[in-house]
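Predict the holo structure. Ligand: pyridoxal-5'-phosphate.
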Amino acid sequence: MAWRYFLSREVPSELEGLQELAQDLRWTWSPQADRIWRRVDSQLWNATRNPWLILEVISQKRLEELAGDPEFRQELSRQLEERKQYLERPTWFDLRYPSPETCGPVAYFSMEFGLAEALPIYSGGLGILAGDLLKAGSDLGVPIVGVGLLYQQGYFRQSIAPDGHQVEYFPFNDPALLPIVPLRDQDGQWIKVAVELPGRTLHLRAWKAVVGRVELYLLDSNDPLNTPADRTITGVLYGGGPELRLQQEMVLGIGGWRLVESLGIRCSVCHLNEGHAALAAIERAHSFLDEEGVSFWEALWATRGGNLFTTHTPVPAGFDQYDPALLERMLGSYVENELKIPFEDFLRLGRLWGRRDEPFNMAYLALRVCSATNAVSRLHQEVSRRLFAPLFPRWPKWELPIEVVTNGVHVPSWEHPEADAFWNRFCSEERWREPTEVLVEQVRKASDEELWELRNRCRCALITVARKRAYRACACRGAAPEELQQCQCLFDPNTLTLGLARRFTAYKRPTLLLHDPERLVRLINHPTRPVQLVVAGKAHPLDSTGRDLVRQWVLFSERPDVRGKVLFLEDYDMELAAEIVCGVDLWVNTPRRPWEACGTSGMKILAHGGLNVSELDGWWAEAYSPEVGWAIGDSGEHGDDPGWDAQEAEQLYTLLEKEIIPTFYERDHRGIPVRWVQKMRESMSRLTPYFSANRMVRDYVDGYYTTLSQRYARRAAKGGRIARELFQWERELQSHWKGIHFGPLETETVEGEYRFTLPVYLDEISPDWVEVELYAEPLPETSAPVIVRMSRGQKLVGSINGFLYHASVPANRPSSDFTPRVRPFHPEACVPSEVTPILWYR
Ligand SMILES: *Cc1c(COP(=O)(O)O)cnc(C)c1O
């Protein structure tokens, strides 16, 4: 039996299972969903895409009717069978990791999750990524649970006023109508967790959303036991000032980890999606400390082995930073009474210099409480290494412990039924539940005709919905009948269709195409090679620049000379995004490098055969090649220099005029643009499988979750024996590192080799606990430095802990390129992620 918020709804026994089906957000990516929910109530389904809500509000009479409809019952049982199969079939994960010790459960913490419009607890890319990750985790059978917050208000909805201004509406998230249920224990008791705030206890209610095989747990503070102010802590996503933000992060991190534990889930891996969630790692250590009776630092050594931090920010301003006084007020007693460490020591985890007024940086905290950190595109890895370099003084940038897992999108959630049907012709229906590398060659087999047909169908699908949306918006504004009439014939189904949809904020440069409006008008109205344009996006309510950018597009679209060919669609959300990415021939993305950490919207068009023209930033910097699309920019960084913006606008216009538009309109005798179609084929086959959440999740599992899970298990075993040893090791290094010094380096050249000999005095540090190495910067054309371990030879007579170290290297570059250094070593430690000292010979 499914628990409900209000226990009022009796579903006739003939419809058993309908509630489970309605609750499982797999409707957002199951091609069958439409078939059943439209039958239940097509109007509600079209308006809300929320089966849970439909079941909540339709009449008992309608349910009885459906119960008496044999066709409906048949459809239901087909879908229940299909769901059962989905849940029970062996998955990629089962087959790859049959032994449960390889990878324990993963808890994935995120401030936002974009799973469906029916559950509006996201604002943009970060949340969509988290949602796509859970969905792909479900498809692949990864043992993962999501942890997030249930906001009483969804992110704002947008409409456009007659004068072109953005108007915001803040919808109320009625928990009874969201596809979530209270999380109850076996006795039916609503599960709650508590977090201490100054002078009071914050009571948090727990909810559950079902995402296929995966569960997402959400906490909210709107409990009558809390003070009125505390009840609004989970009121709005990213709302309020620093105090509220910190409280939300305490709820997510501390409350979230407590919730996972109270459910009896013994997580081995804690994955922090952005620094907001860093307190989860602190609470994890707290829990270990309580259970094993060790110190906080020993507990941190144990648990950090299983923590992963994904950073999404390309600029320092993107990090959450808190005034230490605020932090002390909110967390002081937790740190001193629960973690049992001086508050000053805690502060050090989030700071660089330790000046009194230095803010506490949540990203620094996240990095220091995790044994692995990853960026979200290769370019972002470089940028992140720059941002975090101050945490690793004297370490070469090549060795900074920030790895990369490039983001991907959950293709089944974004692909239009037309695209699904197309892919089904060449690939297995199970394609997104299995490794995707095989798809590359399969989809390449598509003929020119098939590819072009797909493109035309998808473009038409967009035009149909664009007309409907435009009609509705016009009607709401009270437009005249002739204007409404015009909405019905907006756009032309054979015209090259450009799309851009994004957050309207300065760095995304959403109006780059408007740099020279007359030139754009000429492109649009070209007599034989016209283009049309779909635009959407919201500006943050407080971002007046962004709001002005929205208005510029709206006003442009109302110019009489482009009317019917340029459309600003209001209220950009997941649903509108899916409609747009399906239909556009060309996706235009123009961020200022390197401010787009990855970007995912351009990946959503791939499965539909859309092509990208984009700044060489984020994912496009690694995806682009001339065979798959077009690029602007020069791979350099130019800040917000308006001169450079102008130059790039020029570059974009020229590329469109000379290259892109002619390619689209150059047809062979069949009417097919052969060069365009060839690019589609390359883009679809090379990029779609790789830039999918399927590949991303497999990268996380193979590269991180398994390693972290086992590392944690080793460190935690026997009451944290290894963790305690690591703690001692770190202490010893700290006390004696300054005493390490070198004797003179000697270099001989023998038979084409350099032989280096170096006396090293290790103070009281055991020689097993350090490594002496030769280091040389990468040669031109390579990206990895040369690191050669020096072997320890005889003890130096008369010395305390002094040894002679040796190494030989090929003499193919000057011997002065090689510099000896001493760094910490322990087989169970991650260096320099967890301990950072390093000593260079010079
Ligand atoms: C995919 C998506 C995003 C992320 O887009 P980027 O511009 O690539 O960061 C944001 N909002 C919505 C509604 C989306 O669907």
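The chain has four domains: 13-88, 101-151+194-407+701-717, 411-691, 740-840. The domain at 740-840 is CATH 2.60.40 (Immunoglobulin-like).
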